[in-house]
Write a structure and sequence with these properties.
Blueprint: H1 11-15, E1 23-25, H2 28-37, E2 41-46, H3 51-61, H4 64-73, E3 75-80, H5 85-99, E4 106-110, E5 116-120, H6 134-147, H7 149-167, H8 180-193, H9 210-223, H10 226-241, E6 255-256, E7 264-265, E8 268-269, H11 270-287, H12 290-307, E9 317-318, E10 321-323, E11 330-332, H13 340-347, H14 349-359, H15 383-397, E12 405-406, E13 409-410, H16 411-427, H17 431-448, E14 458-460, E15 463-464, H18 471-488, H19 491-508, H20 541-556, H21 559-568, H22 570-575, H23 584-595, E16 599-603, H24 609-619, E17 627-631, E18 654-659, E19 662-663, H25 670-677
Parallel strand pairs: 1-3, 2-3, 16-17
Antiparallel strand pairs: 2-4, 4-5, 6-7, 8-9, 9-12, 10-11, 13-14, 14-15, 16-18, 18-19
Helix pairs in contact: 9-10, 9-11, 9-23, 11-12, 11-16, 12-16, 13-14, 16-17, 16-18, 17-18, 18-19, 18-20, 19-20, 20-21, 20-23, 24-25
Amino acid sequence: MPNRLADATSPYLLQHAENPVDWWPWGPEAFEEAERRGVPVLLSVGYAACHWCHVMAHESFEDAGTAGYLNERFVAVKVDREERPDVDAVYMEAVQAATGQGGWPMTVFLTPDKEPFYFGTYFPPQPRHGMPSFRQVLEGVDAAWRDRRQEVGEVAGRIRADLAERGAVYSAGAHHPPGDADLHQALVALSREFDQTRGGFGGAPKFPPAMVIEFLLRHHARTGSEAALEMAVRTGEAMARGGIHDQLGGGFARYAVDADWVVPHFEKMLYDNALLLRVYLHLWRATGSELARRVALSTADFLLRELRTPEGAFASALDADSLDEETGASAEGAYYVWEPGQLVDLLGPADAATAARLFTVTADGTFEHGTSVLQLLADPEDFAEYEEIRRRMFEARASRPAPARDDKVVAAWNGLAIAALAETGALLDRPDLVEAAERAADLLLAVHLTPDGRLLRTSRDGRPGTNAGVLEDYADTAEGFLALYSVTGDAEWLQLAGGLLDTVLKHFTDEASGALYDTADDAEELIRRPQDPTDNATPSGWTAAAGALLGYAAYTGSDRHRTAAERALGIVGALAGRAPRFIGWGLAVAEALQDGPREIAVVGPADDPATAALRRAALLGTAPGAVLAVGALGEAAAEVPLLADRPLVGGAPTAYVCRHFACEAPTTDPAALGARLGVVLE
């Protein structure tokens, strides 16, 4: 019989709807039930594409004996971290502080007052590798709760106080925005951690450092630093050629378990692919790399082919696991890996040998059971032959049991995808990508934006969720709308971005310090209000908001928005030299601030080829964080202040490059415009 999760919109919660565990969704009713019964709360947090979440579910939550014990002595609460990043953030901070590590599934035991007192992540069904079994953990917590309640309360109180103290350290008002010296110091610190042999930063596991690469590209564009460009290019190429990149279908897996980018953790997330699409587009723009261009286009095609929902937005993820056709069991990576014999059966001996050489498929394999993860360590000599082999392998793979899709729509991640697709479509002459970005934005407006201008975080099948948007939802959606304005010239997107950013200023900003919170001032009260300026898999909401505020100010001349961006960036100055890997987007925004950012106004008839040429030169520019407004003379000035008082020169379409609305001499020459903006191509 289904439990209380049966009506959820989250695919992760629905995966647990048939468990014998009597799950509750997060909400006051669960904690009231724990108070009424006088029992602790088990909080289990995960997400639909999480491999170890599935493992623990099969081993423990589907076991009748374990479920019976859990139901008798606890109130069990299941949370999708992607729906409730605020809940996840607060308790993950406690887990990391207590254990020195974190991850999912996250397992936390709480008092009925939501105070944590015991933590962990995955627990096995039997003790192993020094870990207690899940049943032992349950029995130990139950005994402590019954026999040492006062001690449990004291521990919970100390943890709550520690979390409150940690939350007080973020004060942007105590620092200035990072200057040139701070940004250089960040570059030096990154160079110390850069893997000269394999690309990327640090050792295994290796995560794609999209935000850091964006900073490096912007730093190179502003300063000419070859060291910054080298780190960006080498990391981009290593990822593109490695197993973390899907060599057949495009897109990237979540991370590599090794330092060489060979074996991925096979889940494919919307946010990673949206961020990396934009990064590879910018790598192409900065270098002219054909590899970067191919990767950008194949990643965009992956998003449209495999993550676009019937409503036009983008689903959250593809699972790491799928059915293995030989064993009939679910296995990680089964959809993606190959054996030499499979190539022979599909292609014949001669082409199989070519495919094995191209994609590094060996008898010993690079993954489990002698299978190989596809790599492309060098470009093929014959691209036509390569494309034919790749096409046949891709079509054959499509007949395998596919990974499950988490098809909930998250506002923030769709904002990232909108920005990436809009820019890629405009720069690489793919109007279908711009149309896809517009359609996703329309879905956010129709389903996620409430009549009072607030955002809902998630939807599914066109049905809005119930969870309020967090800071990253407002910031990344605003970023997507600003990108749409820059490539379409439709001023409605600029106005909508402004509305979202006004909400950020009103409900997410500490007026005294300029610091930003992850939740609104009228959101559900947790044991502490979450707040974190550092990046995780996505840009922090704090610095993403700073970037969108800065861009909006560049279009409108709003001192209020620019000042808010500068104050928010104060924390970046404090962290630039100490933790640059974890403040990458903040560093990228700081580069835009150092550069101005450049404000580009192109005035001329939309159907005039000279207007189009100036527009393209502006889009190809590498100036950090530059904004672009295009419109006919007098037509859009009332809606877009950047276009006001910009006359034509000699009756011809004209471009103005400005900083703080103070402009250089106008030009009608696309080449001259490109030279001002650091155009590498054409």
